[in-house]
Amino acid sequence: MTALSVDKPSGRAWWKELWIQVLIAMAAGIALGIVSPETGAKMQPFGDAFIKAIRMLIAPIIFCTVVHGIAHMADMARVGRVAVKAIVYFEIMTTIALIIGLIAVNLLKPGVGMNIDPASINASAIEPYVKQTGAIGFVPFLMNIVPATFIGAFAEGNILQVLFISVLCGFALVQLGKHGAPLVHLIDIAAKMVFAVVGFVMWAAPIGAFGAIAFTVGKFGVGSLASLGKLLGGFYLTCVMFIVVALGPVARLCGFSLVKLIRYIWEELLICIATTSSETVLPRMLIKLEKAGCEKSVVGLVIPTGYSFNLDGTCLYLAAATVFLAQATNTPFGLAEQIELLLILLVTSKGAAGIAGAAFVVLAATLSATGTIPVTSVALVLGIHRLMSQGLTPTNLIGNAVATIAIAKWEGALDGDRLRRVLDGEEQAAAMA
Protein backbone atom coordinates (compact mmCIF):
# COMPACT_ATOMS: atom_id res chain seq x y z
CA MET A 1 0.00 0.00 0.00
CA THR A 2 1.35 3.42 -0.91
CA ALA A 3 1.00 6.73 0.86
CA LEU A 4 -1.73 7.58 -1.66
CA SER A 5 -4.07 5.13 0.02
CA VAL A 6 -7.15 6.93 1.23
CA ASP A 7 -8.49 4.19 3.44
CA LYS A 8 -7.91 3.53 7.10
CA PRO A 9 -6.99 -0.11 7.65
CA SER A 10 -8.13 -1.60 10.90
CA GLY A 11 -5.40 -1.97 13.50
CA ARG A 12 -3.10 0.56 11.84
CA ALA A 13 -0.99 2.50 14.35
CA TRP A 14 -2.25 6.07 14.80
CA TRP A 15 1.18 7.56 14.17
CA LYS A 16 1.29 5.96 10.71
CA GLU A 17 -1.69 8.01 9.52
CA LEU A 18 -0.57 10.65 7.01
CA TRP A 19 -2.62 13.44 8.57
CA ILE A 20 -1.06 12.75 11.98
CA GLN A 21 2.42 12.89 10.47
CA VAL A 22 1.62 16.13 8.63
CA LEU A 23 0.14 17.65 11.80
CA ILE A 24 3.22 16.75 13.83
CA ALA A 25 5.47 18.14 11.09
CA MET A 26 3.48 21.40 11.01
CA ALA A 27 3.77 21.74 14.80
CA ALA A 28 7.52 21.16 14.59
CA GLY A 29 7.80 23.74 11.78
CA ILE A 30 5.86 26.34 13.78
CA ALA A 31 8.05 25.71 16.83
CA LEU A 32 11.26 26.06 14.80
CA GLY A 33 9.98 29.24 13.12
CA ILE A 34 9.24 30.82 16.52
CA VAL A 35 12.39 29.65 18.34
CA SER A 36 14.82 30.27 15.48
CA PRO A 37 13.28 32.39 12.69
CA GLU A 38 16.48 32.44 10.62
CA THR A 39 16.78 28.65 10.67
CA GLY A 40 13.07 28.29 9.95
CA ALA A 41 13.34 30.53 6.89
CA LYS A 42 16.12 28.27 5.58
CA MET A 43 13.72 25.30 5.53
CA GLN A 44 11.97 26.69 2.43
CA PRO A 45 13.68 24.24 -0.01
CA PHE A 46 11.95 21.27 1.67
CA GLY A 47 8.52 22.74 0.99
CA ASP A 48 9.42 23.93 -2.51
CA ALA A 49 10.88 20.55 -3.48
CA PHE A 50 7.71 18.72 -2.43
CA ILE A 51 5.50 21.14 -4.36
CA LYS A 52 7.69 20.80 -7.46
CA ALA A 53 7.62 17.00 -7.21
CA ILE A 54 3.81 16.99 -7.21
CA ARG A 55 3.50 19.65 -9.91
CA MET A 56 5.64 17.64 -12.31
CA LEU A 57 2.99 14.90 -12.18
CA ILE A 58 -0.13 17.06 -12.56
CA ALA A 59 -0.01 17.40 -16.36
CA PRO A 60 0.26 13.65 -17.11
CA ILE A 61 -2.39 12.89 -14.46
CA ILE A 62 -4.88 15.34 -15.99
CA PHE A 63 -4.14 14.09 -19.51
CA CYS A 64 -4.56 10.41 -18.65
CA THR A 65 -7.65 10.96 -16.46
CA VAL A 66 -9.51 13.23 -18.89
CA VAL A 67 -8.66 11.31 -22.07
CA HIS A 68 -9.57 7.98 -20.49
CA GLY A 69 -12.79 9.40 -19.05
CA ILE A 70 -13.99 10.97 -22.31
CA ALA A 71 -13.06 7.89 -24.33
CA HIS A 72 -15.17 5.70 -22.04
CA MET A 73 -17.99 8.26 -21.91
CA ALA A 74 -18.15 8.02 -25.74
CA ASP A 75 -20.58 10.94 -25.88
CA MET A 76 -19.17 14.29 -26.95
CA ALA A 77 -22.49 16.04 -26.32
CA ARG A 78 -22.41 14.90 -22.70
CA VAL A 79 -18.86 16.20 -22.26
CA GLY A 80 -19.99 19.61 -23.49
CA ARG A 81 -23.03 19.50 -21.21
CA VAL A 82 -20.88 18.76 -18.14
CA ALA A 83 -18.49 21.57 -19.08
CA VAL A 84 -21.32 24.11 -19.46
CA LYS A 85 -22.88 23.08 -16.13
CA ALA A 86 -19.48 23.40 -14.45
CA ILE A 87 -18.84 26.89 -15.84
CA VAL A 88 -22.32 28.10 -14.83
CA TYR A 89 -21.87 26.75 -11.30
CA PHE A 90 -18.36 28.24 -11.02
CA GLU A 91 -19.54 31.69 -12.10
CA ILE A 92 -22.40 31.69 -9.60
CA MET A 93 -20.23 30.58 -6.68
CA THR A 94 -17.33 32.93 -7.40
CA THR A 95 -19.78 35.84 -7.67
CA ILE A 96 -21.23 34.89 -4.28
CA ALA A 97 -17.69 34.69 -2.89
CA LEU A 98 -16.87 38.19 -4.14
CA ILE A 99 -20.08 39.60 -2.66
CA ILE A 100 -19.45 37.95 0.73
CA GLY A 101 -15.85 39.20 0.69
CA LEU A 102 -16.97 42.76 0.00
CA ILE A 103 -19.67 42.70 2.67
CA ALA A 104 -17.28 41.29 5.29
CA VAL A 105 -14.48 43.80 4.69
CA ASN A 106 -16.96 46.69 4.78
CA LEU A 107 -18.36 45.48 8.09
CA LEU A 108 -15.01 44.65 9.74
CA LYS A 109 -13.14 47.71 8.35
CA PRO A 110 -9.63 46.29 8.99
CA GLY A 111 -7.86 49.17 7.19
CA VAL A 112 -9.74 52.10 8.73
CA GLY A 113 -7.48 54.28 10.85
CA MET A 114 -4.17 53.12 9.36
CA ASN A 115 -3.83 56.41 7.40
CA ILE A 116 -1.06 55.16 5.12
CA ASP A 117 0.50 57.68 2.75
CA PRO A 118 1.04 55.85 -0.60
CA ALA A 119 4.05 58.08 -1.29
CA SER A 120 5.82 56.61 1.74
CA ILE A 121 5.54 52.99 0.55
CA ASN A 122 8.67 51.29 -0.77
CA ALA A 123 7.43 49.74 -4.02
CA SER A 124 10.66 47.90 -4.94
CA ALA A 125 9.49 44.63 -3.33
CA ILE A 126 6.40 44.41 -5.53
CA GLU A 127 7.98 45.25 -8.90
CA PRO A 128 8.22 41.57 -10.01
CA TYR A 129 4.46 41.16 -9.44
CA VAL A 130 3.43 44.43 -11.06
CA LYS A 131 5.42 43.59 -14.19
CA GLN A 132 3.25 40.51 -14.74
CA THR A 133 -0.05 42.36 -14.67
CA GLY A 134 0.04 43.30 -18.34
CA ALA A 135 -0.72 39.70 -19.36
CA ILE A 136 -3.79 39.42 -17.16
CA GLY A 137 -7.28 39.89 -18.54
CA PHE A 138 -10.12 37.98 -20.13
CA VAL A 139 -8.83 38.01 -23.73
CA PRO A 140 -5.23 37.05 -22.82
CA PHE A 141 -6.70 34.34 -20.61
CA LEU A 142 -8.73 32.86 -23.49
CA MET A 143 -5.74 33.06 -25.83
CA ASN A 144 -3.57 31.35 -23.22
CA ILE A 145 -5.83 28.28 -23.21
CA VAL A 146 -4.43 27.31 -26.62
CA PRO A 147 -0.77 26.25 -26.20
CA ALA A 148 1.95 27.30 -28.62
CA THR A 149 2.96 23.64 -29.06
CA PHE A 150 1.52 20.29 -28.03
CA ILE A 151 4.50 19.46 -25.82
CA GLY A 152 4.80 23.02 -24.52
CA ALA A 153 1.61 22.70 -22.46
CA PHE A 154 3.09 19.73 -20.60
CA ALA A 155 6.51 21.35 -20.24
CA GLU A 156 5.01 24.50 -18.68
CA GLY A 157 2.48 22.59 -16.57
CA ASN A 158 -0.37 24.93 -17.56
CA ILE A 159 -3.49 23.14 -16.29
CA LEU A 160 -5.96 24.72 -18.73
CA GLN A 161 -3.73 24.07 -21.74
CA VAL A 162 -3.27 20.42 -20.74
CA LEU A 163 -7.03 20.15 -20.22
CA PHE A 164 -7.67 21.64 -23.68
CA ILE A 165 -5.35 19.11 -25.33
CA SER A 166 -6.80 16.27 -23.27
CA VAL A 167 -10.37 17.04 -24.34
CA LEU A 168 -9.35 17.15 -28.02
CA CYS A 169 -7.49 13.84 -27.71
CA GLY A 170 -10.44 12.28 -25.90
CA PHE A 171 -12.81 13.37 -28.67
CA ALA A 172 -10.41 11.95 -31.28
CA LEU A 173 -10.34 8.57 -29.54
CA VAL A 174 -14.15 8.53 -29.39
CA GLN A 175 -14.25 9.03 -33.16
CA LEU A 176 -11.66 6.29 -33.72
CA GLY A 177 -13.89 3.83 -31.89
CA LYS A 178 -12.47 0.31 -31.65
CA HIS A 179 -9.33 1.36 -33.53
CA GLY A 180 -8.39 3.60 -30.61
CA ALA A 181 -9.06 0.93 -27.96
CA PRO A 182 -5.39 -0.17 -27.64
CA LEU A 183 -4.33 3.44 -27.02
CA VAL A 184 -7.08 3.92 -24.43
CA HIS A 185 -5.85 0.80 -22.65
CA LEU A 186 -2.26 2.11 -22.78
CA ILE A 187 -3.35 5.46 -21.30
CA ASP A 188 -5.15 3.61 -18.50
CA ILE A 189 -1.94 1.74 -17.65
CA ALA A 190 0.04 5.01 -17.80
CA ALA A 191 -2.44 6.61 -15.38
CA LYS A 192 -1.96 3.79 -12.89
CA MET A 193 1.81 4.18 -13.17
CA VAL A 194 1.66 7.97 -12.57
CA PHE A 195 -0.65 7.57 -9.57
CA ALA A 196 1.80 5.02 -8.15
CA VAL A 197 4.56 7.64 -8.50
CA VAL A 198 2.31 10.13 -6.67
CA GLY A 199 2.08 7.57 -3.88
CA PHE A 200 5.87 7.54 -3.56
CA VAL A 201 6.07 11.33 -3.53
CA MET A 202 3.36 11.62 -0.87
CA TRP A 203 5.65 9.90 1.62
CA ALA A 204 7.53 13.21 1.66
CA ALA A 205 4.41 15.23 2.51
CA PRO A 206 5.33 15.65 6.21
CA ILE A 207 8.81 16.88 5.25
CA GLY A 208 7.31 19.32 2.75
CA ALA A 209 4.79 20.53 5.33
CA PHE A 210 7.54 21.03 7.91
CA GLY A 211 9.69 23.07 5.52
CA ALA A 212 6.84 25.22 4.25
CA ILE A 213 5.43 26.05 7.70
CA ALA A 214 8.87 26.69 9.24
CA PHE A 215 9.64 29.10 6.39
CA THR A 216 6.30 30.91 6.72
CA VAL A 217 6.52 31.39 10.48
CA GLY A 218 10.25 32.16 10.43
CA LYS A 219 10.04 34.80 7.72
CA PHE A 220 6.55 36.30 8.05
CA GLY A 221 4.74 34.97 11.10
CA VAL A 222 5.01 36.81 14.38
CA GLY A 223 5.74 40.34 13.16
CA SER A 224 3.17 40.20 10.39
CA LEU A 225 0.49 38.90 12.73
CA ALA A 226 1.14 41.74 15.16
CA SER A 227 0.89 44.50 12.54
CA LEU A 228 -1.91 43.21 10.31
CA GLY A 229 -3.67 40.76 12.62
CA LYS A 230 -7.09 42.40 12.16
CA LEU A 231 -7.02 41.89 8.39
CA LEU A 232 -5.75 38.32 8.76
CA GLY A 233 -8.28 37.34 11.43
CA GLY A 234 -11.12 38.97 9.50
CA PHE A 235 -10.11 37.14 6.33
CA TYR A 236 -10.07 33.74 8.05
CA LEU A 237 -13.48 34.51 9.53
CA THR A 238 -14.76 35.43 6.06
CA CYS A 239 -13.49 32.12 4.63
CA VAL A 240 -15.33 30.19 7.35
CA MET A 241 -18.46 32.27 6.77
CA PHE A 242 -18.37 31.54 3.02
CA ILE A 243 -17.98 27.80 3.63
CA VAL A 244 -20.95 27.79 6.01
CA VAL A 245 -23.25 30.28 4.24
CA ALA A 246 -22.54 29.44 0.58
CA LEU A 247 -21.22 25.87 0.42
CA GLY A 248 -23.33 24.52 3.29
CA PRO A 249 -26.68 24.98 1.48
CA VAL A 250 -25.25 23.41 -1.71
CA ALA A 251 -24.18 20.36 0.29
CA ARG A 252 -27.63 20.08 1.89
CA LEU A 253 -29.35 20.34 -1.51
CA CYS A 254 -27.12 17.54 -2.78
CA GLY A 255 -27.93 15.38 0.24
CA PHE A 256 -24.59 15.18 2.03
CA SER A 257 -22.96 16.67 5.12
CA LEU A 258 -20.36 19.36 4.49
CA VAL A 259 -18.75 18.62 7.86
CA LYS A 260 -18.35 14.95 6.92
CA LEU A 261 -16.87 15.92 3.54
CA ILE A 262 -14.32 18.16 5.28
CA ARG A 263 -13.45 15.27 7.60
CA TYR A 264 -13.06 13.00 4.55
CA ILE A 265 -10.54 15.35 2.88
CA TRP A 266 -8.86 16.38 6.14
CA GLU A 267 -5.38 15.17 5.09
CA GLU A 268 -5.56 17.15 1.86
CA LEU A 269 -6.65 20.28 3.73
CA LEU A 270 -3.70 20.04 6.12
CA ILE A 271 -1.28 19.67 3.22
CA CYS A 272 -2.90 22.69 1.51
CA ILE A 273 -2.60 24.80 4.65
CA ALA A 274 1.06 23.84 5.13
CA THR A 275 2.19 24.30 1.53
CA THR A 276 -0.28 27.11 0.58
CA SER A 277 -0.85 25.23 -2.68
CA SER A 278 -3.96 23.27 -3.61
CA GLU A 279 -2.11 21.75 -6.58
CA THR A 280 -0.20 19.48 -4.20
CA VAL A 281 -3.35 17.47 -3.51
CA LEU A 282 -4.98 17.51 -6.96
CA PRO A 283 -4.04 13.85 -7.66
CA ARG A 284 -5.47 12.74 -4.31
CA MET A 285 -8.66 14.72 -4.84
CA LEU A 286 -9.25 12.99 -8.19
CA ILE A 287 -9.00 9.63 -6.45
CA LYS A 288 -11.01 10.50 -3.35
CA LEU A 289 -13.96 12.02 -5.18
CA GLU A 290 -14.14 9.13 -7.60
CA LYS A 291 -14.04 6.64 -4.71
CA ALA A 292 -16.77 8.64 -2.97
CA GLY A 293 -19.22 7.93 -5.78
CA CYS A 294 -18.60 10.60 -8.45
CA GLU A 295 -18.24 9.29 -11.99
CA LYS A 296 -14.59 9.28 -13.09
CA SER A 297 -15.21 11.24 -16.30
CA VAL A 298 -17.01 14.03 -14.40
CA VAL A 299 -14.28 14.24 -11.75
CA GLY A 300 -11.61 14.40 -14.46
CA LEU A 301 -13.33 17.36 -16.13
CA VAL A 302 -14.59 19.35 -13.14
CA ILE A 303 -11.57 19.29 -10.80
CA PRO A 304 -8.93 20.56 -13.30
CA THR A 305 -11.36 23.18 -14.65
CA GLY A 306 -12.23 24.26 -11.13
CA TYR A 307 -8.57 24.87 -10.35
CA SER A 308 -8.74 27.80 -12.77
CA PHE A 309 -12.39 28.89 -12.74
CA ASN A 310 -13.66 28.03 -9.25
CA LEU A 311 -11.26 29.85 -6.93
CA ASP A 312 -13.67 30.82 -4.16
CA GLY A 313 -10.96 31.51 -1.60
CA THR A 314 -8.96 33.59 -4.07
CA CYS A 315 -12.06 35.70 -4.81
CA LEU A 316 -12.57 36.29 -1.07
CA TYR A 317 -8.93 37.36 -0.80
CA LEU A 318 -9.10 39.73 -3.77
CA ALA A 319 -12.28 41.43 -2.55
CA ALA A 320 -11.04 41.77 1.04
CA ALA A 321 -7.53 42.91 0.18
CA THR A 322 -8.65 45.48 -2.41
CA VAL A 323 -11.10 47.26 -0.09
CA PHE A 324 -8.64 46.96 2.81
CA LEU A 325 -6.02 48.84 0.78
CA ALA A 326 -8.57 51.53 -0.08
CA GLN A 327 -9.37 51.90 3.62
CA ALA A 328 -5.72 51.91 4.66
CA THR A 329 -4.77 54.63 2.15
CA ASN A 330 -7.96 56.69 2.76
CA THR A 331 -8.97 56.25 -0.88
CA PRO A 332 -12.68 57.07 -1.46
CA PHE A 333 -14.30 53.78 -2.43
CA GLY A 334 -18.08 53.89 -2.26
CA LEU A 335 -20.84 51.58 -3.46
CA ALA A 336 -20.50 52.51 -7.14
CA GLU A 337 -16.74 51.85 -7.06
CA GLN A 338 -17.28 48.52 -5.31
CA ILE A 339 -19.85 47.38 -7.87
CA GLU A 340 -17.32 48.26 -10.56
CA LEU A 341 -14.70 46.31 -8.58
CA LEU A 342 -17.00 43.28 -8.52
CA LEU A 343 -17.29 43.35 -12.31
CA ILE A 344 -13.53 43.78 -12.71
CA LEU A 345 -12.80 40.87 -10.35
CA LEU A 346 -15.15 38.58 -12.28
CA VAL A 347 -12.70 38.99 -15.16
CA THR A 348 -9.30 39.32 -13.47
CA SER A 349 -9.90 36.44 -11.05
CA LYS A 350 -10.05 34.09 -14.06
CA GLY A 351 -7.00 35.53 -15.75
CA ALA A 352 -4.06 34.25 -13.71
CA ALA A 353 -4.20 30.51 -14.20
CA GLY A 354 -0.71 29.06 -14.25
CA ILE A 355 1.01 32.22 -12.97
CA ALA A 356 3.22 31.89 -9.90
CA GLY A 357 1.82 33.85 -6.97
CA ALA A 358 -1.39 34.20 -8.95
CA ALA A 359 -3.55 35.78 -6.24
CA PHE A 360 -1.02 38.54 -5.53
CA VAL A 361 -0.43 39.20 -9.24
CA VAL A 362 -4.18 39.47 -9.82
CA LEU A 363 -4.49 41.83 -6.84
CA ALA A 364 -1.94 44.16 -8.44
CA ALA A 365 -3.75 43.88 -11.79
CA THR A 366 -7.08 44.67 -10.13
CA LEU A 367 -5.75 47.81 -8.47
CA SER A 368 -4.33 48.91 -11.81
CA ALA A 369 -7.73 48.32 -13.47
CA THR A 370 -9.65 50.32 -10.86
CA GLY A 371 -7.45 53.36 -11.46
CA THR A 372 -8.25 54.79 -8.01
CA ILE A 373 -6.35 52.72 -5.41
CA PRO A 374 -2.55 53.18 -5.64
CA VAL A 375 -0.96 50.03 -7.09
CA THR A 376 2.06 50.45 -4.80
CA SER A 377 -0.22 49.90 -1.79
CA VAL A 378 -0.15 46.13 -2.43
CA ALA A 379 3.19 46.21 -0.63
CA LEU A 380 1.17 46.54 2.59
CA VAL A 381 -0.13 42.95 2.30
CA LEU A 382 2.99 41.36 0.78
CA GLY A 383 4.24 40.37 4.22
CA ILE A 384 1.10 38.44 5.12
CA HIS A 385 0.15 37.19 1.67
CA ARG A 386 1.45 33.71 2.43
CA LEU A 387 -0.43 33.67 5.74
CA MET A 388 -3.62 34.68 3.91
CA SER A 389 -2.92 31.94 1.40
CA GLN A 390 -3.23 29.45 4.24
CA GLY A 391 -6.88 30.49 4.41
CA LEU A 392 -7.69 30.84 0.72
CA THR A 393 -6.15 27.56 -0.54
CA PRO A 394 -8.18 25.21 1.69
CA THR A 395 -11.28 27.28 0.86
CA ASN A 396 -10.54 26.73 -2.84
CA LEU A 397 -10.14 23.01 -2.19
CA ILE A 398 -13.41 22.63 -0.27
CA GLY A 399 -15.20 24.68 -2.93
CA ASN A 400 -13.96 22.40 -5.72
CA ALA A 401 -14.85 19.24 -3.78
CA VAL A 402 -18.42 20.49 -3.25
CA ALA A 403 -18.60 21.60 -6.90
CA THR A 404 -17.60 18.17 -8.19
CA ILE A 405 -20.22 16.38 -6.11
CA ALA A 406 -22.89 18.94 -7.01
CA ILE A 407 -22.22 18.76 -10.75
CA ALA A 408 -22.02 14.96 -10.63
CA LYS A 409 -25.45 14.88 -8.97
CA TRP A 410 -26.78 17.45 -11.45
CA GLU A 411 -25.56 15.23 -14.29
CA GLY A 412 -26.91 12.00 -12.76
CA ALA A 413 -23.35 10.73 -12.36
CA LEU A 414 -23.29 10.40 -8.55
CA ASP A 415 -23.74 7.22 -6.54
CA GLY A 416 -25.52 8.82 -3.58
CA ASP A 417 -25.54 5.65 -1.47
CA ARG A 418 -21.81 5.18 -1.89
CA LEU A 419 -21.17 8.84 -1.07
CA ARG A 420 -23.16 8.50 2.14
CA ARG A 421 -21.38 5.28 3.15
CA VAL A 422 -17.92 6.73 2.48
CA LEU A 423 -18.61 10.02 4.31
CA ASP A 424 -20.16 8.11 7.24
CA GLY A 425 -17.11 5.85 7.42
CA GLU A 426 -19.20 2.74 6.74
CA GLU A 427 -17.29 2.03 3.54
CA GLN A 428 -13.66 3.04 3.16
CA ALA A 429 -12.38 4.17 -0.22
CA ALA A 430 -10.33 1.39 -1.73
CA ALA A 431 -6.55 1.68 -1.57
CA MET A 432 -4.60 2.53 -4.69
CA ALA A 433 -1.94 -0.02 -5.40
From TrEMBL:
Principal location class: membrane
Residue spans crossing the bilayer: 18-35, 56-74, 86-108, 129-153, 159-177, 189-215, 235-259, 355-382
Keywords, sorted A to Z: Cell membrane, Membrane, Symport, Transmembrane, Transmembrane helix, Transport
Signal peptide range in chain numbering: none
Matches recorded under SUPFAM superfamilies: Proton glutamate symport protein
Single GO BP term: L-aspartate transmembrane transport
Protein family membership: Belongs to the dicarboxylate/amino acid:cation symporter (DAACS) (TC 2.A.23) family.
Protein's UniProt name: C4-dicarboxylate transporter
